[in-house]
Amino acid sequence: DAGVTQSPTHLIKTRGQQVTLRCSPISGHKSVSWYQQVLGQGPQFIFQYYEKEERGRGNFPDRFSARQFPNYSSELNVNALLLGDSALYLCASSFMAGPGPQHFGDGTRLSIL
Amino acid sequence: DQQVKQNSPSLSVQEGRISILNCDYTNSMFDYFLWYKKYPAEGPTFLISISSIKDKNEDGRFTVFLNKSAKHLSLHIVPSQPGDSAVYFCAASPNSGGSNYKLTFGKGTLLTVNP
Question: A73 Cβ partners below 8 Å, 6+ apart?
Answer without folding.
Answer: A22, A23, A24, A25, A32
